[in-house]
Design goal:
The chain is α+β, with helices and mostly antiparallel strands and 467 residues long. Helices cover 63% and strands 7% of the residues.
């Protein structure tokens, strides 16, 4: 045993006070730096250190003295070696375990094999599809952009907030249009032709109309450009001619639908004016019929002319009466009593007066002593009734003219804002197949399969770690 080991045992057996008292001696007896060198191992025990001269004591070190004082007062301060974290062993080489093999097998089963199956079907079994494209919008007759047929309807009816594009979009995907096109072209036979080879992208010929509508929405795609209000329609079919024929049928049915909506809006716009025109026309017809009946009953076409003629007759009678009275005065002054000339003049005067009385009675100016007694209507009554009928006819004519002007204006305005379908791009004829989009479908399938596998793996390991 070396001297250093003996000194350490001795220090351990001492009490704290003895240890602090003899620490300088132990430090003096400690081996030098040469005894602790790694090269000293294996060369035998280190040579014994020379005993220090008791006469030559070193001066006490201030740092060592302070450490001894701290040791006397309490626990020693931890050294840097004691506070350093322990060194972990180096990890060994990674090995392939059972769980790693399970993950690889699950990746092959969940991702690789289904992706290969999808790719095989797309490139080997799926039939080529051809696209026919067309683009159109709804315009108005005044050459302004028309976005709302229902906006015109909204001026006369409630609601109408949907745009023409929304109306056409719903109509193109509606069951009504599918039934019309199916009746024209037999869509079931067109889309079910390759059912035996391509059951996924083909239609089941035994399906119902609802199934046909769902398949129609897959094969007919509508894209709306909000800025210019354009609709772009893409029609898919297994033959390019069939795709273009279906697109033309859609365009024709959409044009008919827009014309029908425009006609409804035009009828709504002119309905009130047309009703007023019909009322004015009926009133004018009734007034004219009453005037005609009056003329047929009285046999007077124009009472004004008849009155003027009667006034001329009355004036002539008045003149003849005046002449007869003058002649009577002249004859009675020279003729003897009982002269036949006097009797003749008196008879003439009496006849003229009776005639004047009858004429006045016709004008309603006769008295109770009128020989006729006014059994018939007078000219005054006839003229009054005629004036009433004529006023009614004139009022009905003016009302009819105003209603006709209003109706013409409403009809012109309705014609000006009427809508029509303008096809900017006619249905095209495809020369090559671009559908189904095989690369895109395969990429999406691989992505979703990988996400499903990753999510399943995370769920599996989270459950496994909880156990």
């Amino acid at each position: 045993m070396t001297q250093q080991t003996k000194t350490s045992d001795k220090v351990a057996r001492l009490s704290p006070s003895d240890t602090s008292a003899q620490e300088p001696d132990a430090e003096q007896n400690a081996p030098g730096p040469d005894a602790r060198r790694p090269g000293a191992e294996g060369k035998g025990p280190a040579p014994a250190a020379k005993s220090p001269d008791p006469q030559k004591k070193k001066a006490p070190d201030p740092a060592r003295k302070k450490a001894n004082q701290d040791r006397k007062g309490g626990a020693a301060a931890p050294s840097q070696a004691d506070t350093a974290p322990p060194t972990r062993p180096v990890a060994g080489q990674a090995r392939l375990k059972t769980r790693h093999k399970g993950m690889m097998i699950s990746f092959v089963l969940v991702v690789i094999l289904p992706l290969l199956a999808v790719s095989w079907y797309l490139w080997d079994r799926a039939e080529d599809q051809y696209a026919s494209r067309m683009s159109f919008s709804v315009r108005s007759a005044d050459s302004q952009s028309a976005l709302d047929v229902s906006g015109m309807l909204g001026q006369f009816t409630t609601g109408g907030g949907s745009s023409d594009a929304d109306i056409l979009h719903d109509f193109i995907h509606s069951q009504e249009l599918v039934e019309r096109v199916d009746a024209q072209m037999d869509l079931r036979s067109i889309y079910a032709r390759h059912r035996d080879i391509d059951p996924i992208f083909s239609f089941n010929g035994d399906g119902t109309i609802e199934d046909l509508v769902d398949y129609w929405q897959r094969m007919v795609r509508v894209k709306f450009h909000d800025g210019p209000g354009l609709l772009e329609v893409t029609v898919l079919a297994f033959e390019p001619q069939e795709a273009r024929s279906i697109a033309r049928a859609i365009l024709a049915e959409s044009t008919e639908m827009i014309n029908r909506l425009s006609s409804i809006a035009r009828d709504d716009a002119t309905r009130y004016a047309r009703e007023e025109l019909e009322i004015a026309q009926d009133r004018l017809r009734d007034a004219r019929e009453e005037l005609t009946a009056f003329r047929s009953t009285t046999q007077i076409v124009d009472p004004d002319s008849a009155v003027q003629g009667q006034m001329g007759v009355l004036n002539s009678l008045q003149a003849e009466l005046s002449t007869a009275l003058i002649d009577l005065d002249l004859v009675s002054g020279n003729a003897p009593e009982g002269d036949p000339r006097v009797t003749q003049l008196e008879r003439r005067i009496e006849v003229i007066r009776d005639r004047i009385e009858q004429e006045r009675a016709q004008f309603g100016m006769g008295g109770s002593d009128s020989p006729t007694g006014l059994t018939e209507r007078s000219y005054a009554t006839l003229v009054s009734e005629f004036e009433r009928l004529r006023v009614e006819v004139e009022f009905a004519e003016r009302a009819f003219e105003a209603a006709r002007s209003a109706y013409d204006g409403a009809l012109s305005e309705a014609q000006r804002v009427s809508r029509y379908l303008a096809a900017h791009v006619e249905p095209t004829l495809a020369q090559s197949s671009r559908y189904p989009e095989r690369s895109k479908i395969a990429g999406l399938a691989g992505l979703f399969l990988f996400l499903a596998w990753a999510l399943g793996s995370l769920i599996f390991y989270s459950i496994r770690d909880r156990r």
